[in-house]
Predict the structure.
Amino acid sequence: MYRLEDFMADLERRNPAEPEFIQAAAEVVESIIDVVNDNPAYVNAKILERITEPDRVFSFKVEWEDDNGDVQVNRGYRVQFNNALGPYKGGIRFHPSVTLGTLKFLGFEQTFKNSLTTLPMGGGKGGSDFNPRGKSNNEILRFCRSFMTELQKYIGPNTDVPAGDIGVGAREIGYMYGQYKRLRDENTGVLTGKGRNWGGSLIRPEATGFGAMYFANEMVKAHGDTMEGKRVSVSGFGNVAWGAVMKATELGAKVVTISGPDGYILDEDGINTQEKWDYMVQLRASNNDVVAPYANKFGAKFISNKKPWEVPVDMAFPCAIQNELSLEDAKTLVANGVSYIVETSNMGCTADAVPYFIEKKIPFGPGKAANAGGVAVSGLEMSQNAMKLSWDAAEVDEKLKGIMQNIHAACVSQGKGSDGYINYVKGANIAGFKKVADAMLDLGY
Ligand code: 2IT
């Protein structure tokens, strides 16, 4: 029998100074501990100790030369968390906040998320504390080359398949894939999120945002509701936010905010035209990491140094980074009458914000369920690469939609309480966990 407090105290002792990893683990362990204790096979197999310990962690030095000819040093990582269900799979993040603990939290989450997709993928994550902000194209190229020179030792199409995450888009995947091919002379699906002309899947760029909206659409339907006419706030302005605002618009909702590290945009007309969506892509490509210029261009408001959660909306979609929505923000959203929260970033809400939404009976879609569309289409990219053919956009999109509907159904089946409230956190954690745990039992130790 496991006791939650004892298990978490031990996990903290063994993983000092990794608060994000402990936060992610605590949420999962709390959801699944009864399921584990009710199943002697799980307890006897020490499943909790095994599932919270990464299979392997690589840390490496990344040396590169900046445009002044000065040598720069960053740290790169790959965390291979769990491969019970398939090759390690998960993105690469370039962001100054990246530490080993960050990537352990992301690799841990990824394991359960990938399980929820029903595709054969294990969980992994990688990245670097490299900050792309203000870097030239050539600096990005030199960094990516140097990063891949080391990373290529640990990955492979049947071993570990990285993709993008914050700070890593098609350009960076291209530079890394180019270096992989230079070193290995292989045309394989070793990375996903590739460009469409060199092995990528259609819909992969849109997939995380589209998937979150398909999931949200299932959530509203489960509550006898519709996306039509909903007022929506989105944070971030990167790839995920871009896909989310486009699909939200298509589903009849009106997105009124996006945000950056500099503040947020309030666009009461709605972020609902091709020109506005294209401008988001342009802003991101500039590498300046600011959204303020959107306000001038489209006659919207810019509120500096604030988050969009103070804006009254029906649905809120954190799409930027972990812990971007605090308990205080949660209270503001609820006081302003929010009806649904769809966590689209990984662990976008703080540890105290999530139980607040649940206590208030606000339907809350956790990241590992709601944002699984990105990695799901990565899985479909792997399938297409393995078959050496490519599907058209409609086929990929249809599969993505089906996967998100199934994830929603899995959350409902494991998370619906006797009072009818769907605890999506519990549902996603139990459904994701069971598949991984059962596979681990089948595979022995
Ligand atoms: O957090 C995520 O699921 C991703 N960054 C996507 C990972 C992937 O392998 O496509």
